[in-house]
Specification:
With about 260 residues, this protein is α/β, with parallel strands linked by helices. It is built from 9 helices and 7 strands. It has a 7-stranded parallel beta sheet with strand order 3-2-1-4-5-6-7, with helices on both faces. Helix 5 packs parallel to helix 6.
């Protein structure tokens, strides 16, 4: 039974690309993927951060320095990874930016920048990897959504719009490509200890206490909580799961 269980959750012989993989949730996902046996390619803008992450992750990890908003470079990135590492079977759309600002003060340029980084860039990378996945009839695309996809959170109108868009993208993509052997899902993290969370809560104890007060488990999560959820969704244990959003939130989305 142990061997069957390990095989069900194994990512051996898989190649995963994780955007925003050098820190926070992306690093937690990459770490769990390597534990599960995958080769992982981290993508981000800061080479020193990516290099340090790969040193910690070990021989299963490598990186590419690229800004995901450089749309024209997406196909070249995928070709480079598949040439040097192997055919991609997993894409995690995790890269993003946060903007904490009243809706009335959020400019068109700021709103556009958040949507471009999260939504347009994720679609662009997904369309770059899908032909290969479909041809091989094997693949998983995971979008890292948010509590802002599910509940109203003040001061994050652009971020909320972007993360809510992920859920529509997941459903549409899953309806299009699941019969081709490619599954598409989302994870909606709750409040997870990370640089982005620390920035969002900086100097705002009332907001922090409100979050913990409405989270039944009364704590923040760890990046590995998201990582192991991603391992599950990309493994054969979830072979009949597609088009769904999995909250990993300590109960925050159902708390009072």
């Amino acid at each position: 039974m142990r061997d069957v269980t390990m095989e069900a959750f194994s990512l051996e012989n898989q190649v995963a690309l994780v955007t925003g993989g050098g820190t926070g949730l992306g690093y937690g996902i990459a770490e769990c993927f390597t534990f599960a046996g995958a080769q992982v390619v981290l993508v981000g803008r800061r080479e020193e951060v990516l290099a340090e992450a790969c040193r910690t992750l070990g021989s299963r990890a490598s990186y590419r320095v690229q800004d995901v908003t450089e749309m024209e470079a997406a196909h070249g990135l995928i070709r480079s990874v598949e040439r040097d590492v192997g055919p991609l079977s997993i894409l995690v759309n995790n890269a993003g930016v946060h903007l904490k600002k009243p809706s009335a003060d959020t400019t068109v340029a700021e709103f556009d920048h958040v949507l471009r980084t999260h939504v347009v860039a994720a679609h662009n990378l997904t369309r770059a990897v899908l032909p290969g996945m479909v041809a091989r009839r094997r693949g998983n695309v995971v979008f890292i959504a948010s509590m802002a996809s599910l509940i109203g959170i003040p001061l994050v109108v652009a971020y909320s719009a972007a993360k809510s868009a992920y859920l529509g993208m997941v459903r549409t993509l899953a309806a299009e490509v699941s019969h081709e052997g490619v599954r598409v899902n989302a994870i909606a993290p709750g409040w997870i200890e990370s640089p982005m969370l620390r920035k969002a809560l900086a100097g705002d104890d009332a907001r922090k206490n409100k979050i913990l007060g409405r989270t039944p488990m009364a704590d923040f999560g760890d990046p590995q909580d998201i990582g192991w959820a991603a391992v599950y969704l990309c493994s054969s244990a979830a072979k009949f799961v597609t088009g769904t959003v999995l909250p990993v939130d300590g109960g925050a989305s159902i708390g009072f």
